């Protein structure tokens, strides 16, 4: 299965991604993780990305697209994949559609993990990451709302979107995700 998971920072994507890859047995493609690995490796891409990430801004589309394109070409992605944190802008979504279409593939479904803003802030204060200070974090939420939220409409129009209530117990949330996966599978066999 080829699945995209979309959610604002702090929505709990990490926890649900782990469960999803265990269930679906597909690689977990997190652009945030890939970028952090590039930074650790001190590659040209990493050095370029770091400036944006420190400010909570999006890394340029071309850089991210190059990275994802290379990753999708690896053999393990033939079984499907779980995209986490990508696409994040409309141009990224359009490029992904092109990329897959050229390989006669498409996305099976898009999961939106929906969590209200006050809960995101509460969770952020309880965890801590380098790009998690309150100012940078609110910047990341604002960018999500401006740049990434329009993707929900984009995928809704393609009839691929499932909105998952991201509040409550992680197991319950995963239960909701499994119901959506069942629907994606039924739509694919229509
Ligand atoms: P979160 O989901 O908590 O925002 P991620 O680990 O997905 O965190 O991303 C961390 C940072 O990496 C983002 O704030 C952004 O700077 C950069 N990033 C990750 N994915 C993308 C992407 N698809 N396009 C542009 N920037 C990205």
In words, what does this structure look like?
The chain is an alpha/beta fold and 190 residues long. The chain has a single domain, classed as Rossmann fold (3-Layer(aba) Sandwich). It contains 9 helices and 5 strands. A 5-stranded parallel sheet has the order 2-3-1-4-5, with helices on both faces. Helix 2 crosses helix 3 (44-54) and helix 6 packs antiparallel against helix 7 (134-148). Bound molecules: adenosine-5'-diphosphate. Adenosine-5'-diphosphate is lined by residues 9, 13, 31-32, 35, 52-53, 56-59, 64, 85-86, 88, 92, 140.
Provide the fold topology:
Blueprint: E1 2-6, H1 13-24, E2 28-30, H2 31-40, H3 44-54, H4 61-72, E3 81-84, H5 90-102, E4 109-114, H6 117-126, H7 134-148, H8 150-157, E5 161-165, H9 170-188
Parallel strand pairs: 1-3, 1-4, 2-3, 4-5
Bound molecules: adenosine-5'-diphosphate.
Q: Strand percentage, roughly?
A: 5-15%
Count of β-strands: 5
Helix-strand category:
alpha/beta
CATH superfamily (homologous) name: P-loop containing nucleotide triphosphate hydrolases
Short description:
With 190 residues, the protein is of the alpha/beta class.
List keywords for this structure.
190 residues; binds adenosine-5'-diphosphate; Rossmann fold; alpha/beta; 9 helices; five-stranded parallel beta sheet
């Amino acid at each position: 299965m080829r699945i995209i998971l979309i959610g604002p920072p702090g929505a709990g994507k990490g926890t649900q991604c782990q469960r999803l890859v265990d269930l679906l047995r597909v690689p977990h493609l997190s652009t945030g993780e890939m970028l952090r690995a590039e930074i650790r490796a001190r590659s040209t891409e990493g050095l370029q990305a770091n400036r944006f990430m420190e400010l909570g801004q999006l890394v340029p589309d071309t850089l991210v697209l190059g990275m994802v394109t290379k990753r999708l070409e690896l053999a393990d992605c033939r079984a499907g994949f779980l995209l986490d944190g990508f696409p994040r802008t409309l141009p990224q979504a359009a490029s992904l559609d092109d990329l897959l279409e050229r390989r006669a593939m498409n996305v099976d479904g898009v999961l939106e993990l929906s969590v209200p803003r006050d809960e995101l802030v509460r969770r952020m204060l309880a965890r801590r990451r380098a790009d998690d200070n309150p100012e940078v974090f609110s910047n990341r939420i604002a960018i999500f709302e401006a740049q990434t939220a329009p993707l929900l409409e984009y995928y809704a129009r393609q009839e691929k979107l499932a909105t998952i209530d991201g509040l409550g117990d992680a197991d319950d949330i995963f239960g909701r995700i499994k119901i959506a996966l069942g629907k994606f599978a039924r739509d694919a066999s229509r």
